[in-house]
Design a protein that fits this description.
Its EC number is 2.7.7.2. It holds the Pfam family PAPS_reduct. One of its GO terms (molecular function) is FMN adenylyltransferase activity. This is FAD synthase. 39% of the residues lie in helices and 14% in strands. It is of the alpha/beta class. It has a single domain (3-157), classed as 3-Layer(aba) Sandwich (Rossmann fold). Strand 5 and strand 6 (127-129) form a beta hairpin. The longest helix is centred in the first third of the chain and has 20 residues, at 13-32. It starts with a helix and ends in a 13-residue tail after the last helix. The model has no long low-confidence stretch (mean pLDDT 89).
């Protein structure tokens, strides 16, 4: 089922409002930045998708990431170094000005962030685009279940 149609058909008014707000943030990002300067961070799509694969990642996370990339035909750039070094390399190598991130307000690194937030001092400069910053845990699950979106199996084991 198409995501937009599933959300529109939902009786969950809160989900529809959160979804509309997230779509607005995405549209604003594309209005502010040229297409080639935007990346999608993963925690037949021409948008660059980046994944920071760490040696300590659960195998389920890696499997889910690569299965999702395959399912949706995403052009994946896997970075196998620490996050800061990998980000520095990515930003030097590619003309990336903004990165879509799945940060939510309750996340430890979300303090002080807004829907558009520059990177933190001491980090390479880029704009963090947080379309679901105002989403709660409940909102995420409502979206996933309403839209029948696949998710990592670790969630079924109690991980968040």
């Amino acid at each position: 089922m198409e995501i937009d149609a599933a959300v529109r058909a939902s009786s969950d008014a809160r989900l529809r409002t959160k979804y509309d707000n997230a779509v607005y943030v995405v549209q604003r990002a594309f209005a502010l930045y040229p297409f080639g300067e935007i990346a999608f961070s993963f925690n037949d799509c021409p948008l660059r998708t980046i994944y920071f694969e760490t040696p300590c990642a659960f195998p389920e996370i890696n499997s889910f990431t690569y299965e999702t990339v395959s399912t949706y035909g995403l052009p994946l750039e896997t970075i196998r170094s620490d996050f800061k070094s990998g980000l520095e390399g990515l930003l030097k190598e590619k003309s990336t000005k903004a990165i879509f991130i799945g940060t939510r307000i309750g996340d430890p690194n979300a303090v002080g962030q807004e829907q558009f937030s520059p990177s933190s001092p001491g980090w390479p400069p880029f704009m963090r685009v947080n379309p679901i910053l105002d989403w709660s845990y409940r909102d995420v699950w409502s979206f996933l279940l309403t839209c029948k979106v696949k998710y990592c199996s670790l969630y079924d084991e109690g991980y968040t």
